[in-house]
Amino acid sequence: MAVLAACRPAPVVTVEDLAGRSVTPLAPAPAVSAFVFVSVDCPISNRYAPALVRMRDAYARRGITLRFVYPSTRTTAAEARAHALDFGLGDAVLRDPRHALLRAAEATTTPEAVVFRGARRVYHGRIDDWFAAIGVMRAAPTTRDLGDALDAALAGRDPAVSVTEPVGCLVEAP
């Protein structure tokens, strides 16, 4: 059942950039779009920042913009800007305080990734299995779930695994 839900067409969603301007990140639907929900105060999300920056840079060379999304209703644009600067997240940063993209992705956690191929969501879940559970960290990840999903999407395929369970901080309800 989760596989069918992962392939449902993406609704039109509107979020904000850090200047407060409305952005519709899925319209028109690019070939592949990727988002990672992050938080200023989630230690797991912050721990992933260096790896996510490397991933963003590697996939940018292949034509994918990996965007970072702050879904917290309590995080101001100024706080998100400062956090993005501190962690090197760059300019591809969005705010989703109304949870439009969060709902479309069916995400609940930071960090959590979502990949759309065209207008279809084809992956959502963890970045990899570095964190086995809250407080349980492997020396190195043994899977690369987000990378595998991006590689599959670039090849015009759906990923072999479309849904994984993220480990991190729950996003508060709006």
Give a quick set of tags describing it.
Glutaredoxin, alpha+beta, 7-stranded mixed beta sheet, 5 helices, globular, two-stranded antiparallel ribbon, 174 residues, single chain
Number of helices: 5
* CATH topology group: Glutaredoxin
Number of spatially distinct domains: 1
CATH superfamily: Glutaredoxin
Task: Give the topology, please.
Blueprint: H1 2-6, E1 15-17, E2 22-23, E3 32-37, H2 43-60, E4 66-70, H3 77-86, E5 93-95, H4 100-105, E6 109-110, E7 112-117, E8 120-125, E9 131-133, E10 136-137, H5 145-154, E11 169-170
Parallel strand pairs: 3-4, 4-5
Antiparallel strand pairs: 1-2, 1-5, 3-7, 6-11, 7-8, 9-10
Summarize the structure.
It is built from 5 helices and 11 strands; from the N terminus they run H-E-E-E-H-E-H-E-H-E-E-E-E-E-H-E. By secondary structure, the protein is of the alpha+beta class. It has one domain: Glutaredoxin, CATH 3.40.30.
